[in-house]
Specification:
The chain has helices at residues 8-16, 26-39, 65-72; strands spanning 21-23, 43-47, 77-79. The protein is of the alpha/beta class and 80 residues long.
Length: 80
């Protein structure tokens, strides 16, 4: 499991290695979904919530049901 974000060029090797990744934004989740779809696989992902340090993760005040549904609807992301 990777505890920090991957740079865009690190995503494909991480996915091919079967690593679990942490996702901190809707855009990052969409990028993982697109890559996994292109490679015909699934990415095992963990959602990161900002605990108040402001370094990474979804800020609590931006979290809502529509964001959760959008993330759940990503076809190539398996949320762990």
């Amino acid at each position: 499991m990777l505890l920090g974000p991957c740079l865009p060029e690190e995503r494909e090797p991480a996915l091919r290695a079967g690593l679990q990744v942490c996702v901190s934004s809707t855009e990052e989740a969409a990028a993982w979904d697109a890559l996994a779809g292109k490679l015909g696989s699934l990415v095992a992902a963990h959602l990161v919530l900002d605990t108040g340090m402001g370094r990474m993760g979804f800020p609590e005040e931006t979290w809502n049901d529509s964001r959760a549904r959008a993330l759940q609807n990503l076809a190539h992301v398996r949320w762990e």
